[in-house]
Structures are given as structure tokens and as C-alpha cells.
């Protein structure tokens, strides 16, 4: 990179062919203020100094890629996303490594999923390389915001929304691609505790042919009332069933699920198969690989509430956990349903749940070998 006397410069990176990534000088908070926010960052409360933004215009393609200071967006009140929800997002993390470098975890998988989500919502996909360039540039610029405390991370939120000022119903002609980042504390700072879940029998998350297998904002809007119902019933999270028979378990909130059958070295894992109404989680995919490497059989198939309930009663189902980027692995304890409540295990997180959780965290934080090359080095060792 070359510095100039101007307050913006063109980095050596191209966003897409012919469109350089322009890096502006951004206002930075003091080291003291940053240290204070990194001490107990929580989740999604504080944001780093910079943000990435690029614009798409039909006929021109992607233009005007910039790293700028974190600031409000200016949108026309008729911007299409605000009315018809052409809006998608991703979530991934950057991890401080023991050698002082910073790495993201499987960013290419997020890039590919983001493009798939865009196509499903009739939006122009961000090229996968451009997605990675934008994420890398933001993490590199705000490397001081990657926390180094135990199990702390920098959560990265890329998103794309339709901004064309037009109220007609059709795919918009203008979009923004934005990346912001937020330091995140350990998900379970006081030890891992199982969550209680409520089986949603009134509402569904996703129906065949719908948008359940992509990360669009509307899926989340439609899930909030069921989540409130779960809380009102004294539970932490909602568990979604299939829309057609309301019989098969699909997901927990915004996380995928695994069931452990048996115990010890012979324990098997079952995770609901990707029928088109489940979000294909990158954590889910990573855990399937890790569990197989540890010698466990992993099956992707439909798994019914009856099988779950009967399995817990006769001891076949020994553990249940949910997984996703934010929490990695969350054990499931109590299950509440109109058709009868039941408990998984003894109220403590199961041994395979905890082993898989520790192993994946160790890979992400660079404490064990990374045989699949899942870590992508963004900032070199200091
Ligand atoms: C994002 C998400 C997941 C988890 O995906 P990861 O890639 O593992 O973070 C699971 N279910 C839903 C509905 C999601 O939106």
C-alpha cells in the first residue's frame, strides 16, 4: 500500500476488476476507550472504527468500494429493502492467534453462501473473491479491535440490501454491500450451561420452496414472535419443526441441531438433513467433519420429536446440542412441548458435546493443528 498526503488512498487490492478498494483515513477511538470496550464487549454492542461499503448499479455492476469510518447509512425513505425485504446477511469471526496473527474461519464458505442467498432473493451476488477482499480489508484495518481475552472474537457482519428508491415490486436496480465488525465476548463467560427449548407448534420458520436455506433478514423477522412465545413459556430458545407434518426437528433459533445416540467411543451423531428448509450452517458442516475424524459415525437424516422423546426415555439419545458461529456449541437440556415436556441427560452438558466444542474452539483459536486449512490468515504474525 502507498500512502499519500490525501486523506484517502487506493490500496493495492481490487474489489472487482477495474474497481480499486479506496481506503479512507478514519477517525479512531483512543486506545483507552478501545481497551474499555474490549474488556466486556458482550455481543453486537460495540462496533469497530471502520466499515466497508460498495454500491451496485444495474448496467454498471459493482462500483465505489471503500473502507470508511463507521457511520450511519443514508437511505432514501423509499429504498426497496425497507419495503420488500430484499436483504441478506452473513456472520463469521476473526480470531487472535497465539503467534500474534489474526485469522478468519472458512470465509470462502460464507462468501459462497452469501452469493447463494443473493440469487434466491433475485439480487446481484457479490463475487466470492470480492467478499473475501472486503472482509480481509476491514479486519486488517481494525486489527486492534480483535480481542485477545479467552474465547473472545471479532464478529464480522457482511450484508447486502436493495437501496433503489422505488416502490414498484420487482428486483431493485441498486444495492449496497456493507461489512461491519463487532468485538464479542466469550459466549458462556461463567461456564457452559444447557438451554431450555420450546417446540414451536403454532409457527413455522421455513416451508418447502421458501427461503429457509438462505440467510435473509425476513426469516429472522418471522421468527421473533415464536421466540417471544418460548420466553413466555420460561424457555431460552425456540425449536422449529418441519412445516408439513410438524413432526421432524429442524433447527433451534438460528442454530443447527445434533443428537447423540449412545455414549463413549461408539457414540453416533444424527443431524437433521438439509431438506431445503434448513440453513446449511458452516459450524454444522465443520462438526460433521471433526466428529468423523474423532471416530464417530455421523448421519444426516430426518429426526422426529417422537424419536427424540422416546430416545431420551429409553436412554438411546444421550445428548443434544445446537451449533452456530456465534455460540459454537450450546447444549440443550429441558424440552417443553404441548405434547409433554422432557429432559435430555442430567442437566449438565454431555461429554461429546463438550469434547466437540473444545476441539472446534481449539482449531479456531489456533491451539491445535488445522488439517483442513480452515483458518485464513488476515493479519501476519507480529
Ligand atoms: C446462520 C444460521 C445458522 C448457523 O450457521 P453457521 O454458518 O454455523 O453460523 C443456523 N441456522 C440459521 C437459521 C442461521 O441463520
Key structural traits:
382 residues, alpha+beta, D-amino Acid Aminotransferase, Chain A, domain 1, D-amino Acid Aminotransferase, Chain A, domain 2, 2 domains, ten-stranded mixed β-sheet, six-stranded mixed barrel, 19 strands, 24% helix, 31% strand, disordered N terminus, binds pyridoxal-5'-phosphate
Shape: globular
Which small compounds were modeled alongside the protein?
A: pyridoxal-5'-phosphate
Q: What is the N-to-C succession of helices and strands? A: EEHEEHEEEHHEEEHHEEEEHEHEEEHE
| Total helical elements | 9
Tell me briefly what this model is.
This protein is α+β, with helices and mostly antiparallel strands and 382 residues long. The protein has nine helices and 19 strands. The strands form two sheets. Strands 1, 2, 3, 4, 5, 6, 7, 8, 9 and 19 form a ten-stranded mixed beta sheet that branches. The protein has a six-stranded mixed beta barrel with strand order 10-11-12-13-16-17, surrounded by four helices.
Write structural notes for this entry.
The protein is of the alpha+beta class. The chain has 2 domains: 2-186, 2-Layer Sandwich (D-amino Acid Aminotransferase, Chain A, domain 1); 195-364, D-amino Acid Aminotransferase, Chain A, domain 2. It has 9 helices and 19 strands. The chain has helices at 31-39, 80-84, 107-120, 128-141, 217-221, 224-232, 282-293, 305-314, 351-364; strands at residues 8-16, 19-24, 50-57, 61-69, 87-89, 92-96, 102-105, 153-162, 174-184, 195-199, 237-241, 249-252, 255-261, 268-271, 297-300, 317-324, 328-336, 342-343, 375-379. The strands form 2 sheets. Strands 1, 2, 3, 4, 5, 6, 7, 8, 9 and 19 form a 10-stranded mixed sheet that branches. The protein has a 6-stranded mixed beta barrel with strand order 10-11-12-13-16-17, surrounded by 4 helices. β6 (92-96) and β7 form a beta hairpin. α3 packs across α4. The radius of gyration is 22 Å and the shape is globular. The two termini are 18 Å apart. It binds pyridoxal-5'-phosphate. The site of pyridoxal-5'-phosphate has 13 residues, from β13 and α7.
Amino acid at each position: 500500500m502507498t500512502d499519500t498526503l490525501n486523506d484517502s488512498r487506493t490500496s493495492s487490492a481490487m474489489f472487482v476488476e477495474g474497481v480499486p478498494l479506496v481506503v479512507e483515513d478514519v477517525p479512531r477511538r483512543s486506545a483507552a476507550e478501545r481497551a474499555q470496550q474490549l474488556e466486556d464487549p458482550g455481543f453486537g454492542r460495540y462496533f469497530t472504527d471502520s466499515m466497508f461499503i460498495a454500491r451496485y448499479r444495474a448496467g454498471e455492476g459493482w462500483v465505489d468500494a471503500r473502507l470508511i469510518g463507521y457511520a450511519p447509512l443514508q437511505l432514501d425513505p423509499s429504498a426497496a429493502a425497507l419495503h420488500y425485504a430484499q436483504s441478506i446477511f452473513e456472520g463469521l469471526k476473526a480470531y487472535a492467534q497465539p503467534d500474534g496473527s489474526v485469522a478468519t474461519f472458512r470465509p470462502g464458505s460464507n462468501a459462497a453462501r452469501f452469493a447463494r442467498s443473493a440469487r434466491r432473493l433475485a439480487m446481484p451476488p457479490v463475487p466470492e473473491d470480492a467478499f473475501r477482499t472486503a472482509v480481509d480489508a476491514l479486519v486488517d484495518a481494525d486489527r486492534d479491535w480483535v480481542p485477545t481475552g479467552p474465547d473472545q472474537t471479532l464478529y464480522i457482519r457482511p450484508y447486502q440490501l436493495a437501496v433503489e428508491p422505488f416502490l414498484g415490486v420487482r428486483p431493485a436496480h441498486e444495492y449496497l454491500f456493507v461489512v461491519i465488525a463487532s468485538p464479542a465476548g466469550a459466549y458462556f463467560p461463567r461456564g457452559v450451561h444447557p438451554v431450555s427449548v420450546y417446540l414451536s407448534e403454532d409457527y413455522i420458520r421455513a416451508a418447502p420452496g421458501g427461503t429457509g436455506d438462505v440467510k435473509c433478514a425476513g426469516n429472522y423477522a418471522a421468527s421473533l414472535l415464536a421466540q417471544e412465545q418460548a420466553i413466555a413459556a420460561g424457555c431460552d430458545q425456540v425449536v422449529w419443526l418441519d412445516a408439513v407434518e410438524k413432526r421432524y426437528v429442524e433447527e433451534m433459533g438460528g442454530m443447527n441441531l445434533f443428537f447423540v445416540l449412545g455414549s463413549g467411543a461408539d457414540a453416533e451423531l444424527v443431524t437433521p438433513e438439509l431438506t431445503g428448509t434448513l440453513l446449511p450452517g458452516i459450524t454444522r458442516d465443520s462438526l460433521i467433519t471433526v466428529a468423523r475424524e474423532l471416530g464417530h459415525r455421523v448421519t444426516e437424516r430426518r429426526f422426529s420429536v417422537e424419536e427424540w422423546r422416546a430416545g431420551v426415555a429409553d436412554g438411546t439419545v444421550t445428548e443434544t446440542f445446537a451449533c452456530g458461529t456465534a455460540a459454537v456449541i450450546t447444549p440443550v437440556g429441558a424440552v417443553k412441548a404441548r405434547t409433554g415436556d422432557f429432559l435430555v441427560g442430567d442437566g449438565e452438558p454431555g461429554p461429546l458435546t463438550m469434547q466437540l466444542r473444545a476441539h472446534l474452539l481449539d482449531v479456531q483459536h489456533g491451539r491445535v493443528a488445522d488439517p483442513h486449512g480452515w483458518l485464513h490468515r488476515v493479519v501476519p504474525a507480529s
